[in-house]
Specification:
The protein is α+β, with helices and mostly antiparallel strands and 305 residues long. It has helices at residues 11-22, 51-62, 84-87, 141-149, 162-169, 175-184, 207-221, 281-290; strands spanning 40-43, 66-70, 73-74, 94-102, 105-113, 118-126, 188-189, 193-195, 238-244, 249-253, 264-267, 275-277.
Amino acid sequence: MRREERKRIGRDELLDAVTRLVARGPQPLECGVAGHGAGHLCLALSGQVALADLVEEISRRYGPSRNLAMGGYADPTVDATAGLPLLTPFGKHVVDMRAWAYGSWWIGAGTADSGDGVRRVVLVAERAEPVVDGLPADASWVERVAAVTGWVGDRRVRTIDWAAVEQRLGTALPSDYKQLAEIFGHGDFDGFLSLYVPDAGVSGMDIVDHAEYLARDASQEGTRLWRPYDIHPAPGGLLQWAVSEQADQFYWVTEGSDPEAWPVLVYEEVPDSWRRFDCSAAEFVFRMLTERGHPYSTARYFDTH
């Protein structure tokens, strides 16, 4: 990617620049700041931009942030899977840094000591996709989940009548989810995240029955519990595909006509606790299993899955 012109820009221009960068898909970045390496791009802020306002607006677009550094102290546990590429350009001079994960990118906003004072910084950095030993780098997210859980070999793949399932739901479903349901069936990843699957054989865990239950509840009681969202089959409504042992609810936002592009949305049974992840269900599960910095990480507690 060619270097962006480093003119100082206002809040809305900066947010638009970030959106353009992360929408382009994986491409190499090269920063124009002296002493900074490749793999990221710093954007110059106008002196009129309030950092707190900027952080709030980025969070509105990309979900809650992670705190990588505060008061000159960087979290020593931060690695490449948790946002380290946002700290590397500033080294020991970083003061504060918030991070957002979005697809193949990290978005960062904070402050750094430039030698002549603390300055505000916003940058976009490349986010490497994890590699699993024994799998090619282009392995699918489902293949990575199967490998990291050891769910391979002679395990029987279930046969599911997806045409009938999708007819009852009134929508096509993401292909990676269908593969997860066929390979794993009903069960829990690390005893934490339970998939809703067709014909689960466990009361309340059938994805179609549960979707119909939520739709009935929403039609009778309203959608107050899901505000500002609606429930499928309303256009763009939420369709639940998993639940955690702590009652976290994992949905797709059924926006647009392509299920492969549906983002994941998580609700924690706490008001205004929505977290959006612009990734597939299989990518979400894999990162949950392997990244210690993931908001719903089980990698913090288990070495094997």
